[in-house]
Design a protein that fits this description.
- With about 325 residues, this protein is of the alpha/beta class.
- It folds into 2 domains: about 1-115 and about 290-320, Medium-chain alcohol dehydrogenases, catalytic domain (Quinone Oxidoreductase, Chain A, domain 1, Alpha-Beta Complex), CATH 3.90.180.10; about 120-260, Alpha-Beta Complex (Quinone Oxidoreductase, Chain A, domain 1).
- The protein has 11 helices and 16 strands.
- The strands form 3 sheets. Strands 3, 5, 6, 7, 8, 15 and 16 form a 7-stranded mixed β-sheet that branches. It has a 6-stranded parallel β-sheet with strand order 11-10-9-12-13-14, sandwiched between helices. Strands 2-1-4 form a 3-stranded antiparallel β-sheet, with no helix packed on it.
- Strand 10 (about 160-165), helix 5 (about 170-180) and strand 11 form a beta-alpha-beta unit.
- The longest helix has 14 residues, at about 115-130.
- The radius of gyration is 19 Å and the shape is globular.
């Protein structure tokens, strides 16, 4: 089968085309015939637990038809239309743990379904079990045009929460307002937005902040929080992994600070997230309250161009690759 591998070469993540055998499912796994996959910045970060080693078949999510079912799998049948986090989505066939497979809503195209698993599951964990976002509360998303940022805005809108997003592009903010339901956009590339957030919220601040930028805005995110606010960190596109914390403000205001990553999450934890997402968010994707925002769709042999677009930071929403 055709596949693209991610390799580390002189501290850069590069793509390499390979023709490899179709994978066989182990117990508890399924193999899907991939119809579409999507780009995720995390797997292009070189080194450490994020990239996962010197080389691997690329693609961490996929949508397609179940091709083969491993021993002990009773919840998924061959021929089913599914989407989920996968191993090797940049290929014609991909492995998926059975507990990650979700029924792909009929109203979604393959490309839209492929845009769901990673970004929306991440948004779910930030907004529901950890962020505890409620109707009428304020959500602030820094770097709002990213996949996780857009998914957070759309999920918050479904909940009835109010949304603020930051971006260095007025054009991106305009598209987020038109296509994702963003309520207020703040154009900035700097850590200078807390005062504007407080002003927009009547002096209160954001109840939940999703930081998709990194350490360069972490302290400003804390300053933008309301009393008992929660701060989620999900990315660091700025490359800044350290930041000062005002412990006095953290202490006095009862802030909650957390991160969301799958790098060390157990299979049981991943399965629990899928169950919660299936209960709380998937119905909104099925009935039309949420439609994944796709930035651009590439053909499979254009996957290097899709990677280049991801690295250019030009996208609004998900960059999708059509495989089948």
């Amino acid at each position: 089968m055709k596949s693209y591998w991610i390799k580390t070469d002189h501290d850069k993540a590069i793509l390499e085309f390979r023709d490899v055998p179709v994978p066989e499912p182990e117990p508890g796994q399924i193999v899907i015939r991939v119809h579409a996959t999507a780009m995720n910045r995390g797997e292009l970060i070189v080194g450490g637990v994020v990239h996962g080693g010197p080389e691997k078949v690329g693609g961490t999510e996929a949508a397609g038809v179940v091709h083969a079912v491993g021993e002990g799998v009773a919840t998924v049948k061959a021929g089913a239309r599914v989407m989920g986090r996968a191993r090797g989505g940049f290929a014609e066939y991909a492995l998926m743990d059975a507990h990650q497979a979700m029924a792909a809503p009929e109203r979604l195209s393959w490309e839209q379904a492929a845009a769901v698993p990673v970004s929306f599951l991440t948004a779910y964990e930030m907004l529901f079990p950890y962020g505890r976002l409620q109707r009428g509360e304020w959500l602030l998303v820094t770097g709002a045009s990213s996949g996780a940022g857009v998914a957070s805005i759309q999920t918050a809108a479904m909940l009835g929460a109010r949304t603020i997003g930051t971006s260095g592009s007025e054009e991106k903010l305009a598209r987020l307002k038109a296509a994702a339901g963003l309520e207020l956009g703040i154009m900035t590339r700097s850590a200078d937005f807390a005062a504007r957030v407080k002003e927009a919220t009547g002096g209160k601040g954001a109840d939940l902040v999703v930081n998709c930028v990194g350490g360069s805005v972490f302290s400003e995110c804390l300053r933008a929080l309301a009393y008992q606010g929660r701060l989620a960190t999900v990315g660091y596109v700025d490359g800044v992994l350290n930041s000062e914390i005002d412990l006095g403000a953290l202490h006095a205001n009862r802030y909650v600070v957390f991160g969301v990553s799958n790098a060390r999450l157990s299979p049981e934890g991943r399965a629990e997230a899928v169950c919660g997402f299936t209960r709380d968010v998937l119905p909104g994707l099925a009935d039309g309250r949420i439609t994944p925002l796709i930035d651009k769709v590439y053909a499979f042999d254009e996957l290097p161009a899709a990677k280049a677009r991801m690295e250019s930071n030009a996208q609004v929403g998900k960059i999708v690759v059509r495989v089948a």
